[in-house]
Write the structure tokens for this entry.
Amino acid sequence: MNQEIGAHELDTLLEQLPPQTKVLSLDCFDTILWRKVARPTDVFFSLQSLEPFRSAGITAALRAKAESELRRRKQLLTGNSEVTLEDIHRELLPHADPQGIAQAGEVEIACEISHAFIFEPIARLIRSARAKGLRVIVVSDIYFTGQQLGHMLGALMGETADAISHIYCSCDFGASKTSGIWKEVLRREKVQPQQVFHLGDNRHADLQGPAAHGIASAWLRQHPASVTSQLDQRASAAVQLMPELRNTHALPSYFHGLLAATDTETLSAAQQIGYRSLGPILYSFGRFIEQQLQALQAAGKQVKIAFLLRDGYLPAKVCEVLMGSEGLHQINVSRFTAIASSLQTKADVVRLLTSSLSESSMPAMAKQLLLPPAKAQALLDQATRSDQPTQTFTRLVLRDDTLKLVFQQSAAFRERMFTHVRQRTGLAPGETLVLVDLGYSGTAQTRLAPVFKQAMDVDLFGLYLIASRVKGQQTDRKGLIDASWADERLILAMTAYIGLFEMMCTTPEASTVDYTEQGEPIRSQSNTARPQSEVVADIQAACLRFVADMARTPERHQPRQTPLELAQQAAADLGRLLYFPSAPEIACLSAFEFDFNLGTDLLLPTANLQAGVNEYRREGFALMAQELKAMRISYPMEMRQMDISLATTLLSAQRFGYSLAPSEASFRTTSIPTLIANRDQHALVQTLATATFDGYYRLHLPMSAAFDQSLLLGQTHEWLQLDSIQKVPLDDKEPGEDLALGEAVLLDGLEQVEGTLVKFSPGGMMYFPACSLKEHGKFMIRVVFRPVLARAESTPVASHSAHEAAAPYRPITTAASSPIKEPV
């Protein structure tokens, strides 16, 4: 009976065994004993920092290479590739004495133990098998001896290890599961092949090997294909975001055991996102919060804990699962209300204007300054009539009478906010208020810290998922991902497109814009569609289920956690979600809308998959350089949908801070003969079109009032697919505008038109008459097309420097190119 069984189905295995079964045989590594790293050799990255390996210069790569070469050499010389740990260490440390080799063996075994945990469903299986009267043995292809492996299992399994009758290791017998160890197993166990059932995770060794001896077996399928793919993409994101992984540190993978033990294939797409994607991130954050609160309390701090709504909603629920709800509070303090409460001096107002004022933000700024509607409108009217609107707005705001009004409004607002916080937390003078939020600059904390200290003698301390460095000595806040281990470029890469993650953590309630005199929050009108809220609720419920499942897993069956690994784990999972979302995640989340949460009703789409394709064909990475209202918050999602190489490039550019220049994206070009003419002269030149995406090409022509232009497309192509013909402003301030066929552009010599497919006669052309003087020098023409069938014979045309170079496009710099302003 050869079959496969999912890891989450192991509780049913004993019911399926043949009735004559007397011995249950189990593989060891990745069946009984799992590691807390992404792949087995990741352990060697921890080993390389330990003595005697560190002083001998033995790296993870050298450790793996020594074993591989030793096995190959032994196979060539003896026909048998089995080696022991001692053999490997003698290869690595040729000058070590027997005591040194023994010490190296002890160190590696201890390193393996520290990285290992026992897979809980297998532990249950072993106990159930023994209760049913079956003998349980271990058969493993490994360089550890049976004694060494027995020591490891004993250290990790406790009393359950006593249920294992015997351990058979390939290096003890000089034979693997595919080369003869089963004969020895059957002889020593004194059973017939049909009385043994074997289970292991290697399809070749654990199925074909036993089958050759008539032993029934099952392949342990750890994960379904979708989870395996997600784990692979996670590793890809991790090593790019954190180059120290698989260099000086192992790549942590704390949760693949729970993902194996749980059947997530039957969940909806939203539930899978919550369990597989959000759950690991929020569990890590919750454990971090728990550890930091314990440290503050151990230091003698009298603390009150407050999760900032809206984004602190799901972290609060996670902590309730991990720690219970007692002492955990939620307060409705947004970026808007924090700033509104903190306007006490002219310097406070100047700082606000400096950080956020633009022509488009002036209405929101007037609201943030708490100006009454009539006063705000009068100020805005005067500013917009000015030649320098922002300077005029600033001058009007900083007038003494305006500042006096702002300070009065802020003082009243501040008292209402204090009432709200005291009501929700019971905060008393002299205590420390711990603010918990996703991050990132901690604007609410920074703004409110002097306010609370002055009015209530209360210190603020921030705990964040991600904490940017906002000052040199940052002792009043910590982040799971922060400057204590992460460089600033990593934090920028993690926060550039974080809006997608925030939407899944937020409360379903609208943003708070004020408080009643009794401290009750006054909320803005919610613009979020109900279907989105329902999906978010499903995501959050599944996330909390993951956290609960992880929390109830016995300690023996969990990885041994370290603070740094927990942080790296979260960064890897979040990076994968943001830059390499899966197809089901994209399908579920791409229609979401992001509430900007700045006291305005601005909503930004998460993604527009088709628009992303269209815009990338026309503009390349320049599609991300748009005005705020035209932006989408998850360009990586669009890039991943198009091509993983684009998402990888975007991740790399964000992580390492280099520019993406569309003009440098491709060296593939095609030349189009172009006729330039007016009443007095004409010239035949060559216009260069550059490849963009999906086989499309882009060319640019200057818009000129001095001459007409004709692209002689019929000379070089029989069939083309037209994407767009647009005029584009040279200053990049506005998007391209389609040119009207029959007016600004004429197509001549067409033989056939099928949708966007056009067949040209040899004399076919695209004709652009001279533009108006008003447009002259301010616009260029952009034509995007896909060659379908080239004309068999085309005559090269001399090039002309004015048309060889595409119209200039400024590089897209990713230094801080996030469309999302930092929320509370």
Summary: Residues 680 and 707 are 10 Å apart (CA to CA). The mean pLDDT is 91.
